[in-house]
Specification:
Layout lengths: L5 E2 L2 E2 H7 L6 E2 L6 H9 L4 E4 L5 H5 L3 H4 L7 E6 L14 H7 L20 H24 L4 E5 L2 H6 L1 H10 L16 E5 L5 E5 L3 H10 L3 H5 L6 H6 L1 H12 L4 H11 L3 E3 L3 H5 L2 H5 L3 E6 L3 E6 L23 H7 L4 H9 L3 E2 L4
Parallel strand pairs: 4-5, 5-6
Antiparallel strand pairs: 1-2, 3-12, 7-8, 8-9, 10-11
Length: 355
C-alpha cells in the first residue's frame, strides 16, 4: 500500500494490483485468529497464501490445519523457492528469482552486465502458474470430490519458460548467452535501426518469410548465399547475416519499412515507448486501459484483465479496498453471528475500517 507514486494519499501501484478485491484483517497471532480462518475455510473453494514455508503452520492456518474442516478445499502456496529443497526457507522476490533462475544471465547485450526484465515477470508468472494449478485442481475435484495442495515458486517460473534455451543446452550442450533482441533459434528475428533513428522488429521465423523479407528488401543475393540457405544455417551464421541487413534498414525510415514489410506479409512492428504503446488505438480498442473514479484519489486509470469470454462479460472495475474495509461483511457472509463479530472486534482479532 505504501509504494508510490500516490495520488491524494492513495498508492497507485496498489490500486492497479488490487482493484475489485475485498479486505479482511485477521490478527493470526491473537487467540482465536486461526479459528476465524478455519471457519471461513469450511465453505471456501480456494485458499491462497504467500508466506515463507513454515509460517502458515506456525500460525495454525496450514493446509493440514484447514483440510480436515473442508476436504474439498484447494490450498495454494506461493513462495520464492517452493515448499521443499535447500532454499525453501529463503525469502524470494522477483529480482532474486530472475537472477537465480538464469533469466538475467541470458538477457541484455552480449558482453554487457546482467539485465533484469523491467516487468516483475517471475512475480506475475508465478501467479499465473498458480492459477493454472488451481484450475487444474478444480477440474480434478469434479472427479475425485477432494481438494489438494498446490506449490508454486518464483524460481521455477523462468526455468519452466526457458524452452528455447533448454533446447540448445540439452540438445547441443550450448551455454545460452545474452543476444540483445535476437531470437535464440531463429534468424533474422530482432530489432533493426532505420534511417529516422527509430527501431523496428522483424520476425522471419520460417523459410517462406525469409524469402519474402529478402524480396521486399531487394536483397536477392542473400537468398543465394550458401551461409543463409536454411533456418539452422541462418542461426549458425547470425554474426555474418545481421551486419549485412543492418545497412539495408538504414536506407529507409521506420514507417517506410513497416509499410513495405507489412505489404509483403513479413511480421514486423515498431519499437514503441511505453507511452506510445498505452495510447495505441489497438490497445484502446481492446479496453485494457480503463479509467475509474476513486472516492479518495479522484480520476485513476487501471489496467483490465486481458481475457475476453464470449458469454461472460468482464465486470466493472472498482477501486482497491481500504485495509479491513470488508472485515465485518466477509464474516457475516461466512456464517459468523453478530455477537461473535462484535467479540472479535472488541478483542482486536479482526479490524474493520470505516471508509
Amino acid at each position: 500500500r505504501g509504494f508510490g507514486p500516490a495520488k491524494n494519499g492513495v498508492g497507485i501501484p496498489f490500486e492497479l494490483l488490487n482493484h475489485n478485491k475485498k479486505s479482511l484483517v485477521v490478527d493470526l497471532k491473537k487467540p482465536g485468529g486461526s479459528d476465524v480462518i478455519k471457519k471461513l475455510a469450511e465453505t471456501a473453494d480456494i485458499v491462497l497464501e504467500s508466506s515463507k514455508p513454515g509460517t502458515s503452520e506456525r500460525l495454525g492456518v496450514s493446509y493440514e490445519d484447514l483440510q480436515p474442516v473442508n476436504p474439498r478445499l484447494i490450498y495454494c502456496s506461493i513462495s520464492g523457492f517452493g515448499q521443499n529443497g535447500p532454499y525453501r526457507n529463503l525469502g524470494g522476490v522477483d529480482i532474486v528469482a530472475q537472477a537465480m533462475g538464469g533469466l538475467m544471465g541470458i538477457t541484455g547485450i552480449p558482453g554487457g552486465p546482467p539485465v533484469k526484465i523491467s516487468l516483475p515477470i517471475t512475480d506475475i508468472g508465478c501467479g499465473m502458474w498458480a492459477t493454472i494449478g488451481i484450475l487444474s485442481a478444480l477440474a480434478a475435484r469434479e472427479h475425485t470430490g477432494r481438494g489438494q495442495r498446490i506449490d508454486s515458486a518464483l524460481l521455477d517460473t523462468p526455468i519452466a519458460w526457458s524452452f528455447w534455451e533448454a533446447s540448445r543446452y540439452f540438445g547441443l550442450g550450448e551455454k545460452p548467452q545474452p543476444l540483445g533482441s535476437s531470437h535464440r533459434n531463429v534468424a533474422p528475428y530482432r530489432a533493426f535501426k532505420c534511417a529516422d533513428g527509430r527501431y523496428i522488429v522483424i520476425g522471419a521465423a520460417s523459410q517462406p518469410l525469409w524469402e519474402k523479407l529478402c524480396q521486399a528488401m531487394s536483397a536477392l543475393s542473400l537468398l543465394e548465399d550458401a551461409r543463409f540457405k536454411t533456418p539452422p544455417l541462418r542461426v549458425d551464421n547470425r554474426s555474418a547475416l545481421e551486419p549485412l541487413l543492418e545497412p539495408l534498414f538504414l536506407k529507409k525510415t521506420s514507417a517506410a519499412w513497416l509499410d513495405i514489410l507489412n505489404q509483403a506479409g513479413v511480421p514486423c512492428g515498431p519499437v514503441k515507448s511505453y507511452e506510445e504503446a498505452i495510447n495505441d488505438p489497438q490497445v484502446k480498442m481492446r479496453d485494457i486501459v480503463t479509467p475509474i473514479e476513486h472516492t479518495k484519489a479522484g480520476s485513476l486509470t487501471l489496467l483490465n484483465v486481458p481475457v475476453y469470454l464470449s458469454d461472460t462479460p468482464r465486470g466493472k472495475l472498482d477501486q482497491a479496498p481500504a485495509l479491513g474495509e470488508h472485515s465485518v461483511g466477509v464474516l457475516e457472509s461466512g456464517g459468523f453471528t453478530k455477537d461473535a463479530i462484535q467479540r472479535l472486534l472488541a478483542e482486536k482479532v479482526i479490524t474493520q475500517t470505516n471508509t
